[in-house]
Automatic annotation (TrEMBL):
InterPro entries in UniProt: Helicase_ATP-bd (IPR014001), Helicase_C-like (IPR001650), Mot1 (IPR044972), P-loop_NTPase (IPR027417), SNF2-like_sf (IPR038718), SNF2/RAD54-like_C (IPR049730), SNF2_N (IPR000330)
MF terms in GO: ATP binding; ATP hydrolysis activity; DNA binding; TBP-class protein binding
Principal subcellular localisation of the protein: plastid
UniProt subcellular location: Plastid, Chloroplast
Gene3D superfamilies from the UniProt entry: P-loop containing nucleotide triphosphate hydrolases, Tandem AAA-ATPase domain
Any one cellular-component term (Gene Ontology): chloroplast
Chain ranges of the Helicase ATP-binding domain: 13-193
Taxonomic source organism: Guillardia theta (strain CCMP2712) (Cryptophyte)
Name of the protein in question: Uncharacterized protein
Sorted UniProt keywords: Hydrolase
Span of domain Helicase C-terminal: 347-494
Length: 494
């Protein structure tokens, strides 16, 4: 363990000693998993020794529970086996079979093994786990910001199981993503009632802090917001530990973020103008206007990525549009139709990827929101223009049990040039230090989703412990479009 990780384990030990609970919110990539495993292993060992001496019920061995995104179940199992296989025994539950659940109950009631479940699996097996009279030593939530919505079914399931545990711990690099009320939900799992009811928290903390942000010109509002924030800090900070990479990893190479602004191709410009014009046509009432606006935004997002996301190569009418704007004989699979595909081609060639006579020194993660965009990249760019490039792919259709194997293969095999990922799958918890270049093809336009957190999580798949090279991050953004405006609003956060 590095020095700061030892300090993290000591902090967790302090919480355990005084029956307290907390949030380990170190920067992504600093080893929250390893620190947690070390703390569980230490406490498990000490508990065994105490039980040998006393034989008392309060010291008997207890199992621990780790809840994480499905992509990380195998990762947790692998890390426990790698670092603490003599102390901890990890087990998973992948089946819905009653027999397996019954045998699992017997296994857990008489041991201090570590059960690793996804959030959905926990919800699915909740009643069985609650009815099994199992008391847990640790209940750990990895990527714990998943329970930020206090009214979701997953949050309710997690909180009910938390009440059956001695020690509760949340791991997250982003404890607050959109608003301060999310912090209440996390602490309601850790220490129910510590921050009062949701209504009390909203009145005394969340509302004054939000008003301070929105109405900065009013002195009374600013003062009330500052007081609320100060009270909240004093109340929660003793139960939170956060270290940034800049503070603790002087030897970690830098991360360089570059925005590449791209002019739309003629076909993209033509389709973009048509979509804007069509979206501006009135009619349909308030509800109809809202629906129409969402449809227009979806169309614009697809157009700036690639025209063939809105056109059909088999439709005669769409073929004529391509011919009229681009000239006769232009294939719908021509990379020149999309500014982003052209830029991606140039970036990959600059990295030496797909260039047969040159050994690539870079390895790349390519992130997209839509699987259909990854399909186009794979078919029109990699297979046709860069056939020598080697790549793997991970998206929502990739079976959960295969995702860890793909991660392991990419990190261990330097002959694999690329990994294609959807942001939703690749942005949570994976360790992909085999890459030194990250390229974002598209970006989430939904204002209800926190773009900053999503981007930072995806970027830090590569920029974490184990990385020895400078990580270059490229964001492809189309000029003169709504995408440029949205990304401009977010840029100051990064």
């Amino acid at each position: 363990l590095r020095r700061y990780q030892q300090e993290g384990v000591n902090w967790l030990g302090f919480l355990l000693k005084y029956q307290l609970h907390g949030i380990l919110c170190d920067d992504m990539g600093l080893g929250k998993t390893l620190q947690t495993i070390a703390a569980i292993a230490c406490d498990t060992h000490l508990r065994r020794e105490r039980y040998k001496r006393t034989g008392e019920e309060r010291d008997r061995p207890l199992p621990s529970l780790i809840v994480c995104p499905p992509t990380l179940v195998d990762h947790w199992q692998h890390e426990i086996l790698q670092f603490c296989n003599e102390t901890l025994v990890p087990i998973t539950l992948r089946s819905k079979e009653v027999k397996e659940r019954a045998s699992l109950r017997e296994e857990l009631l008489s041991s201090d093994k570590v059960l690793i479940l996804s959030y959905d699996s926990l919800r699915l097996h909740l009643l069985h786990l609650l009815n099994s009279s199992i008391s847990w030593n640790f209940a750990v939530l990895d990527e714990g910001h998943i329970i930020k919505n206090p009214s979701s079914k997953i949050t309710a399931a997690v909180k009910s199981i938390g009440l059956c545990s001695l020690h509760r711990l949340i791991l997250t690099g982003t404890p607050i993503q959109n608003n301060v009320l999310e912090l209440w939900s996390l602490f309601d799992f850790l220490m129910p009632g510590f921050l009062g009811s949701a209504q009390h928290f909203q009145l005394h903390y969340a509302r004054p802090i939000l008003d301070d942000r929105e109405r900065k010109e009013e002195a009374k509002v600013i003062e009330a917001g500052d007081r609320a924030l100060d009270r909240l800090h004093r109340q929660v900070l003793p139960f939170m530990l956060r270290r940034t990479k800049e503070e603790v990893l002087q030897d970690l190479p830098p991360k360089i973020i570059q925005d590449i602004l791209l002019p739309l191709t003629p076909l993209q410009s033509h389709l973009y103008r048509l979509a804007v014009r069509k979206g501006g046509e009135g009619g349909g009432g308030a509800q109809g206007e809202k629906s129409k606006t969402l449809q227009t935004l979806t169309q614009l997002k697809k157009i700036v990525n690639h025209p063939m996301l809105v056109l059909d190569a088999e439709q005669e009418e769409d073929k004529q549009v391509i011919a009229q704007v681009c000239g006769p004989g232009v294939s719908p699979h021509d990379i020149n139709l999309s500014a982003k595909l052209l830029a991606l081609h140039e970036l990959l060639v600059d990295c030496g990827i797909g260039v047969e006579e040159e050994q690539s020194s870079s390895r790349v993660l390519i992130f997209a929101q839509m699987r259909s965009m990854l399909d186009i990249i794979q078919r029109d760019l990699l297979e046709k223009k860069l056939p020598a490039a080697t790549y793997l792919r991970m998206d929502g259709t990739t079976p959960v049990h295969q995702r860890f194997e793909i991660q392991k293969a990419f990190n261990s095999d330097p002959t694999i040039d690329l990994l294609l990922l959807t942001t939703h799958v690749g942005g949570l918890g994976l360790t992909l230090t085999g890459a030194d270049t990250v390229i974002f093809i598209e970006h989430d336009w939904n204002p209800m989703k926190d773009l900053q957190a999503t981007l930072l999580q995806a970027m830090d798949r590569a920029h974490r412990i184990g990385q020895t090279k400078t990580v270059n991050v490229f964001r492809l953004i189309t000029k003169g479009t709504l995408e440029e405006k949205i990304m401009g609003l977010q840029r100051f956060k990064l």
